[in-house]
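Progress report, Aim 2. The chain analyzed during this reporting quarter is listed below.
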Amino acid sequence: MEIGDKTVNIEGLPRRKVQHVLLGLPFDLVTIVESATLIEQAISSKKRCFLSTPNINFTIAAHEDNAFYQSVAISDLSVIDGMPLVWLAKLMGFPVKERVAGSDLFQFLSEKHRDKPIKVFFFGGESGVAEKAHEQLNTHSKGMVSVGFYDPGFVSIEDMSKDEIIQKINDAEADFLLVALGAKKGQAWIMNNLTKLNVPVISHLGAVINFVAGSVVRAPEKWRKLGLEWLWRIKQEPNLWKRYLKDGWSLSWLLLTKQLPYYFVNKKYKRDASQNNAVNWQPNTDTLFLAGCFHANNLEKLDALISSTLLTMRPQLKIDMRGLNYIDGTFMARLLILQGHLSVLGCEVVILNLEQKIKRLMSLAGVLKRFKVISG
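Predicted structure tokens for the chain:
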């Protein structure tokens, strides 16, 4: 789909993975193997896969920085990286099977022998680390080969987005661009250059470049399973303790004021909801009318209608929710992803006639603030 000189990938909008909202972010509830398969498919088909791996720090930052949040919302694959998030998701009853850490996913891809190795380009890291990662990957990997690296130094996003730098990356013909600039700066750089990069898979994996280079030793598996990797990282990088302390306080506040209240309110509303739903599209007003109950198991009709609607829509998609009596986290994840993709085009989703109980659900889930809401 195109508006002006911008395009959006609508292929990823229909339901093709299990999605849910956790702490206001949309997540794909996939395993490491499933994630690797999606990445391999993107590489073989030359279709873009912008991979985000939110952990606690990522999630807290998304609440504080809308641009950072948008980078997750438009991602083609957003996985749960962090045991506390996995535990919380399971507590909420979400069908999450395992943590998908960016480092585990990269290692899985690297250790899988293949006749045609995945071509990797390292971008960023501290001085000399990208080159070291390049050398180490080519020495030890069974399933990957590094085709280049670039250290932009401590410069602005604009300076590291110059045409000659993007051209250097594109000329390497990599399959996987690993970015390591610090989470906020890295996601911002990707967003700034996403349409100019000819690399199928792009992801900010800041710690991974250090692990591959050998400049930082990753926590033992037992520590990771116990959710203590943060403690190991403080041992390796003492300056991280301030970040972890701040994130811990912020997470506690979100749990007490949003996520736990959402759990109980959602449980009550779900029990009382009708199971029928209706979808009606009125193209003359660009309005989608929804009624009844929408949850993970009955979104097929809505997904199909949204996909076809996007092909002809104008800059604003209105969704009238007057008749809704229940929506779950999967439905809200769809809304966030839709809003994220349309925002790239300068478009927006406008919610009309929001029922009080739906408003409460969306507010506690951390979703409501992402939308323009007009009352009837």
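The longest strand covers residues 316-327. The mean pLDDT is 88. These observations will guide the mutagenesis work planned for the next reporting period.
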